[in-house]
């Protein structure tokens, strides 16, 4: 029976509805490109400052007396802070469009910035140095966990950290997927404008 009435199927109606062509004026495009530039600069500055603060914090912790493995982990985390700040500058910091650029030039530069951001998100583990972060955290936490095997109460004290870490990871992956979809949609809209 459902195959007899394809127009009564809401999913079919949704898929087959006509779409309007995407249009954007030159002023609107320039405004959007400037807005993206401001947002990207703020995000880049925030990431650079956070990376440098992490570097200073972990370097300060590195000079304090620890056992060898946790100390190497803290040193690795300190180096990760510098690497993270450098990658934020390299991949997130936007290029400045010329103020007297034509519509086509503005469109191309805006699209290339969006593609650069999309590509940065694709290889986040490598570009953000998350492998070094995970390794450094493991080098700091695992020796403490091994020592706490004698006393299960100390092991329970670390449980909130791991629960928060799992929640953060789930939220991070969800937001990353959503942002990547928004970037891709905007890139496709800009490509449609170029044609």
Low-confidence stretches: none
Distance between the termini: 43 Å
What is the beta-strand fraction?
A: under 5%
Overall shape: it is: elongated
Report the helical percentage. Answer: over 70%
How many domains? The number is: 1
Q: What's the helix count?
A: 8
Helix-strand category = mainly alpha
Task: Tag the structure with descriptive keywords.
elongated
Q: Would you give an account of this structure?
A:
With 195 residues, the protein is an all-alpha fold. It has one domain. Helices cover 77% and strands 0% of the residues. The mean pLDDT is 77.
Topology:
Layout: H1 10-15, H2 26-62, H3 68-91, H4 103-122, H5 124-127, H6 130-147, H7 152-157, H8 159-194
Summarize this entry quickly:
The protein is 77% helix and 0% strand.
């Amino acid at each position: 029976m459902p195959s007899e009435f394809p127009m009564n199927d809401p999913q079919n109606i949704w898929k087959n509805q006509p779409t309007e062509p995407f249009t954007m004026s030159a002023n609107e495009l320039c405004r959007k490109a400037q807005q993206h530039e401001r947002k990207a600069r703020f995000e880049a500055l925030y990431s650079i400052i956070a990376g440098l603060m992490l570097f200073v914090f972990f370097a300060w912790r590195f000079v304090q007396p620890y056992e060898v493995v946790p100390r190497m982990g803290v040193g690795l985390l300190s180096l990760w802070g510098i690497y993270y700040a450098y990658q934020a500058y390299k991949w997130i910091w936007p290029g400045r469009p010329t103020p007297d650029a034509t519509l086509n030039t503005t469109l191309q530069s805006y699209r290339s910035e969006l593609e650069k951001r999309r590509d940065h998100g694709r290889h986040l583990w490598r570009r953000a140095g998350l492998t070094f972060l995970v390794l450094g955290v493991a080098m700091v936490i695992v020796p403490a966990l091994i020592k706490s095997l004698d006393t299960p109460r100390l092991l329970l004290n670390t449980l909130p950290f791991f629960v928060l870490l799992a929640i953060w990871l789930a939220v991070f992956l969800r937001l990353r997927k959503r942002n990547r979809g928004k970037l891709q949609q905007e890139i496709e809209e800009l490509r449609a404008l170029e044609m």
